[in-house]
Specification:
Shape: globular
CATH architecture of the largest domain: 3-Layer(bba) Sandwich
Distance between the termini: 39 Å
Structural class: alpha/beta
Largest sheet: 8 strands, mixed
Strand content: 25-35%
Number of strands: 17
CATH topology of the largest domain: FAD/NAD(P)-binding domain
């Protein structure tokens, strides 16, 4: 996936996650020439629960087919989410009744499979440095980190599928970016054991374990747990308190640290400050503000990627404003995102993102 791209495309998508892959698949299906740029080397790691909810399953199978065996982990399916109000009381939220549950995958493998099957040309190790909109075309300046080269690419439409930290959004509207508040999430992966049911994704809602919430799940025997706080706050005391609770209440025994990772998120999803784009530049997924309560983002990433593809296709065919079409297509998704956070706050008994 590292070959030098050609210079002219109908659409360039920045970001090779589910939203970028869905947008690419939808556009390629309409006969458009599409390039996907990914700043990291593929396959790249993604901090995520890796739970494929029913909506995500349906879109995945419709666009790409059955999820490959290589993406699945043990346990293969999860029964649901178990939310703990304290270390003794919980409520279960099953994924489906009478079914197997939700697929449990490694995002690195799932995402890589999606983008390889998108039909688009893909260039990894390539970061966007800047762009200029000339009205009838957009010129991009990119840096090929593998070859240490600057690349200039021309396209008619540009799509940001970059995630919460969007270079494109920041360049389009610096004032919007200044009003955005951020949180930091951190996660550990340990070899070890615990008494928590591995067939559930566990959320711990007590505020002493995190300002957002703390979580725990198991993949291929790894004990995966983390928490999140406001950017600038000290996360270590929360993580230490949370780890002690898991050890004392649920028999967590840690052996070898395999991986530790972190990421940034923002309050766009909880405040309803969606940013869909400007001119012929469209945003999808977390870049646009789509992230459901408790951090589920794959379903809205896939949906909004498809909406962007439909909007651009209709814009090209009809001459109408693709951004206006994108805004109309995402109306229900925006409402559902806001509703999910209200429901999450009601379940938790507190604001899930007090940042």
């Amino acid at each position: 996936m590292g070959n030098m791209p050609k210079k002219n495309y109908d659409v360039v998508i920045v970001g090779a996650g589910p939203s970028g892959a869905a947008a690419a698949r939808g556009l390629v299906n309409e006969g458009l020439e599409v390039l996907v740029l990914e700043k990291k080397k593929l396959p790249r790691y993604k901090m995520c629960s890796g739970i494929i909810f029913k909506k995500s399953q349906d879109i995945t199978e419709k666009l790409f087919g059955k999820i490959p065996e290589s993406a699945y982990v043990t346990p293969r399916f999860l029964k649901g989410v178990r939310l703990w109000s304290d270390n003794k009381h919980f409520s279960d939220w099953p994924f489906n009744k009478g079914g197997n549950g939700a697929p449990n995958v490694w995002r690195s493998e799932y995402d890589y499979w999606l983008i390889k099957n998108s039909g688009a040309e893909v260039k990894d190790c390539c970061s966007l440095k800047g762009f200029k909109d000339y009205g009838n075309y957009i010129m991009l300046e990119c840096h090929d980190t593998c070859n240490n080269e600057t690349i200039h690419i021309r396209c008619e439409y540009l799509v940001s599928a970059e995630g919460s930290r969007s270079v494109i959004r920041e360049k389009l509207d610096p004032d919007f970016e200044k009003g955005t508040k951020w949180f930091v999430a951190y996660q550990n992966y340990y070899e070890g054991t615990s008494d928590l049911d591995p067939y559930f994704y566990h959320g711990f809602l007590e505020s002493q374990f995190g300002e957002v919430y703390a979580w725990f799940n198991v993949k291929d025997g790894l004990q995966i747990f983390g928490t999140a706080v406001r950017k600038g706050a000290k996360i270590r005391p929360y993580l230490s308190e949370y780890t002690k609770m898991l050890e004392n209440s649920f028999g967590l025994k840690l052996k070898k640290l395999v991986r530790k990772t972190g990421c940034l998120g923002n309050d766009m999803c909880t405040t309803g400050r969606f940013y869909l784009g400007k001119g012929k530049v469209l945003l999808v997924g977390e870049a646009a503000g789509f992230l459901n309560a408790f951090g589920e983002g794959i379903s809205c990433a896939l949906s909004t990627g498809l909406f962007a593809a439909e909007a651009i296709t209709k814009g090209i065919k009809s001459g109408n404003d693709a951004l206006a079409i994108h805004s109309e297509l995402t109306k229900v998704e925006r409402r559902q995102t806001k509703m999910s956070w209200k429901l999450g706050a009601k379940i938790a008994g507190r604001d899930l993102m007090p940042i």
